[in-house]
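Help! Submission page says 'invalid entity' but I think these are all valid:
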Amino acid sequence: MTSVEGNEPYLKVTDLTVRFPTADGLVQAVTDLSYGVDLGKTLGIVGESGSGKSVSSMAVLGLHDRRSAQIDGSIVVGGTEVVGLSEDKMRSLRGNSVAMIFQDALAALHPFYKIGKQLSEAYLVHHKGATKREARARAIEMLDRVGIPQPDRRVDNYPHQFSGGMRQRAMIAMGLINNPSLLIADEPTTALDVTVQAQILDLLQDLQREFNSAVIIITHDLGVVAEMADDVLVMYGGRAVEYGPCKDILTHPEMPYTWGLLSSVPDVSADTNARMIPIPGNPPSLLAPPTGCAFHPRCVHASKVQGDLCRTTLPELLPGVRGENHLKRCHLANPDAIYEAEVLPEIAPEIMEGGLR
Amino acid sequence: MFSFLVKRVLAGSLIVVMVSILVYALFWYGPKSPALELCRRDTNNRCTDAKLVDYEQKLGYDNPIYSEYGKWAKGLVSERKIEFGTTEYVCAAPCLGLSYRDRSQVTEQLKDRFPVTLSLALGASTLYLLIGVSTGVLAARRRGTLADKVLVASTLVFSSLPYYLVALLSFLLLTLSTSAFPEVQYVSFFDNPASWFSGLLLVWLVMGLYGATAYTRYSRGAMVEALSEDYVRTAKAKGLRSRTVVFKHGLRSALVPVVTIFGLDVAFLLSGTVFTEAIFDLEGIGKWGVEATYIKDLPVVQATSLILAVSVVVMNVIVDIVYSVLDPRVRLS
């Protein structure tokens, strides 16, 4: 593990911008994104498809094709600047101190190689002196650790012989085989059914405690965020629109897009009068993003802002009324009041009756 | 695996038998008598109707088709005596009959000619894979760059030229006028491996380079697709070298569709390469089969058709086995 100077977080992303030149024009997938994750902490990145959450995380591993992606800003991992790092040095970080696990493990594991082979390959590439036998033993140990029964036999199975949950466990085992200090989990539970989702999330939490790693969990599921995250970053149209401590954001969201996300989460234990309200419209085009606030064409509260501000001026990401740590990108002056008066009664009437926590 | 092979061999034999019946019947009921060529030859082009009937009788065309086909088929496993005019020929098993053109034993001819075609097919198909797949992978890795565009465009230009033109020009320029290559000839590998190699080198290069252009495009396409798979991204995220990612994780998947086409191409190469044999003057089975078809030399046509049928069947079995080796999800049963 690389030592981290002072109070700097293990991963520090500053003003990250990712652009892809295409035949139709420049796609600005991520704009001026900044965040940090400490060791032992979990950051949840939330947003719709195309909001830039995966693109920004893949930049941390340098997984974008150098010819097709323009990356600006700074990404510091354990004291090392990653943007512009040589391919050789980048490769020694990948899978070693920074690992990534992907959604849909069936597609993300190679169908032609045995599980054990794929795990030991990840081990061997960063342990040059290790023998194949040691790597295999390590693979079995990791499979055991992630709760795969009979790991010494299962290690010789192919991915298609595993169930969906076991494949995701194997994927996690592969990600953690080199004890990474930073683990990026890209929608790790999306392709799984609900009971397996819960098991996988528990497993990730256990492993994080054990290895004290920094974790980024990318998801569109606020339930996952509530379960896992210490901090939350809400992304929209390639920008951070709300960023702060998880509990604060889930209980006192200050940006209408976050309200929309919260309103569209089904909750089986909630009051039967609670409504699920979809966000109208579609995610913005990144080729020709809307002027001003990217969310304004879909925002039902834009009229509460004076003049044409939402349409003309991009709001800055600034501390809201709840403190320095809770940042939001919105022109609304009194978001808490609007949330309590207009949004909460619709989505959670039971909270209103019992008073706000 | 064993039961797979047994099943495929049985099914394959059935296909071969059906092909042989079909070819036999086509010639039997065809518009021109198979006896005509022999009659003309023996009578110095003065074959009368009466003589033709006489020849047809000698060749057995007055018997029912099934009894004649039966005689032919029986010859594959046991010795056969064939009366041709006044002479009786002994044709040892496996007997494929006598050529109507020169009364030579088809089986003996085949033994002389098939090694030539086999040598051409082996050399050419090896180059298909070596040159085609490597340039395809190169283009896919550099997709969208100048190198990729030049490579793809040049394969298109090259394969748009007629093959006989390319072959003939290479033959004329590279051996006859400049002797850049050794003289083209066929020497058996078992007699002299070095001469076998040098004698066929130019032919292989011409066939291989021309055929490889298609493989460049197939494997480029398959490779571009494979490299965009999630598991290739996973391999990259593990920190593997780009070479390992491309060849171990990308190419292995990309080979599956290439192998399918390759299997069929090899089968067709084995059934003869007419232009190549004609231009480079090599006595393979392609030219032999085409000439036999013109003159309705049924035993020879039957033999060359069998070679193609057997090649296709065998190559398909091999392709299926290669599939199961490449992709563990494929079960042979």
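Support: the input was valid. A stray whitespace character was the problem, and the output above is from the cleaned input. The CA atoms of residues 62 and 87 of chain A lie 8 Å apart.
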